Amino acid sequence: MVTTMNVGISPVLNDASFSPFDPSVPVQRSTFLMCKPTLYEVSYVINPWMAGNIHTSSRSKAKEQWKDLYSNISQIAEVSLIDPKPGLPDMVFTANAGLERNGVTVLSNFFHKERQGEEQYFRQWFQNRGYDVVTLPREISFEGEGDALFSEDGTTLWAGYGQRTMKSSHRYLSNTWNVEVVSLYLQDSRFYHLDTCFAPLTGGFVMYYPPAFDSPSLRKIEDRFAKEKRILVDEPDAMQFACNVINVGNAVVLNEISKNLSSQLAERAFYVVQVPLGEFIKAGGAAKCLVMKLSKSIPD
Ligand code: ARG
Predict the structure, then answer these.
(1) Staple partner for 207: which of 79, 123, 231, 287, CB 3.0–4.6 Å?
(2) What is the pLDDT of residues 206-224, one digit of tens each?
(3) Counting beta carbons within 10 angstroms of the beta carbon of residue 155, is it exposed (0 to 12), middle (13 to 18) or buried (19 or more)?
(4) How far is the CA of 111 from the centre of ligand 1 (A)?
(5) Quick check: is 193 catalytic?
(6) How far is CA 91 from CA 128, 259, 290, 296, in A?
(7) d(C-alpha 57, C-alpha 66), whole Å
(8) Ligand 1 atom with least separation from CA of 110
(9) CA-based nearest residue to 279, from 103, 53, 47, 7
(10) What tens digit of pLDDT does each residue of 176-203 get?
(11) Is 112 an annotated catalytic residue?
């Protein structure tokens, strides 16, 4: 049995001189965008996880799990909220709203029509809060932070393609932030977004499920991360969305994972917080899919 831990006790940043609880040290807190699961359900099938799960999720259980995630995240970061909208049950997965850095948001162009209705609400949200909003040509699909993850220092953007996001979107991302984009081909339909099988972590670590990638992509990962920095996830943990992790400082917040993987993370000084998110896995998402990282704190 895995217990849900509370991060309140001591999430510390990797730099030991930089404690978030020392009031004399100004700390730039991370901010995440979330969407309450008030209208969440599985009402169509656009990935293998949703098959057989139409109307099987419990809204009250989903609300409890989301609240648990929200309260854990609130202890290590600021949280901004966007209102859920009727007919858009996947809007709770805000990682797919777009990708934001330095006040610039590249909005998503969803691959499936079932989610395209979300685009206007995410656009409004960012425009109303003063972000520069970049729109890609309609025919180029791009699913936001679900498929694009910045390295810890922001100089590299890891970007997935082959399932939802088109490779042709990557050059727009590179031009927007003047960053190197490393394109990774996703070959397994169960791991249809990069954030379901790959997570760059603080301290220069990376956690990933190798079979989700083709061999040229695996080589790119191995070229950029030394062996001792790679945390390989096996299939049972990958199926528990172990790579779908929210990482702030040395805290990692994720669904329930094996003892073996949580010890591997703990050995590397990560503080592991497991929050059961089974109701969201029925739609093909877990911790990381339920948040989008923002570079500035926005008063609602
Ligand atoms: N049902 C949603 C979809 O298929 C789940 C999205 C999960 N989000 C993510 N960032 N992996 O689009």
Answers:
(1) 231
(2) 999 999 999 999 999 999 9
(3) exposed
(4) 11
(5) yes
(6) 18, 32, 9, 21
(7) 13
(8) 12
(9) 53
(10) 999 999 999 999 999 999 999 999 999 9
(11) no
